[in-house]
From TrEMBL:
Domain Phytocyanin: 30-132
Transmembrane intervals: 154-178
Organism in which the protein naturally occurs: Escallonia rubra
UniProt superkingdom: Eukaryota
Location(s) in or outside the cell: Cell membrane
Protein's UniProt name: Phytocyanin domain-containing protein
Listed Pfam families: Cu_bind_like
Protein family membership: Belongs to the early nodulin-like (ENODL) family.
Keyword set includes Transmembrane helix: yes
């Protein structure tokens, strides 16, 4: 009986040690409301850089999404050259449904313009820089800044994705301990 009690205590201590040494990587995807409560509209003439200013205050990662809300307009993803010229005959993405959600699927620069004549020239355009995937320590640092992202129109999505490899290793060790 004493041996059995000692063995169970050792298992519990070993389990606690394993739990404290694991770094679970949690990647939280965020949905950004483009332009905050104003949406995707022609900016006032005095602030033609409204959307790039908004974008520069946010931190975008792979798998985050952008929600564009608008009336009688459109959203196009274009090349840098087409962005600078404010026109595109062959956009990489087009939507005009008034409530467009666009997933940022890779790191790098994304160029968005309005497809309505004259709107891009009046400032309805934006460049988004999507960052490379982060390490667990960078991800933990970013979590502390989540309230500032929410103030700028960022909404955490419902789920979080956990590192599958870490979960599988942990589950295997747990099974071996209590088998």
């Amino acid at each position: 009986m004493a041996f059995s009690l000692f063995t169970n205590s050792c298992k519990v201590l070993l389990l606690l040690a394993l739990l404290s040494s694991f770094n679970f990587l949690a990647v939280v995807c965020v949905e950004f409301q483009v332009g905050g409560d104003k949406g995707w509209v022609i900016p006032p003439s005095k602030n033609s850089h409204l959307y790039n200013d908004w974008a520069s205050k946010n931190r975008f990662k792979v798998d985050d999404t952008l929600r564009f809300e608008y009336k009688k307009d459109s959203v196009l993803v274009v090349t840098q050259e087409e962005y600078e010229k404010c026109r595109s005959s062959h956009p990489m993405f087009f939507s005009n449904n008034g409530n467009t959600v666009y997933k940022l699927d890779q790191p790098g620069l994304f160029y968005f313009i309005s497809g309505v004549a004259g709107h891009c020239e009046r400032g309805l355009k934006m460049i988004i820089k999507v960052l490379e995937l982060e390490s667990p320590s960078q991800s933990a640092n970013q979590t502390t800044n989540s309230t500032s992202s929410q103030k700028s129109g960022a909404l955490p999505m419902a789920g979080a994705t956990y590192s599958l490899t870490s979960m599988m290793i942990f589950t295997s060790l747990l099974g071996a301990l209590f088998a």
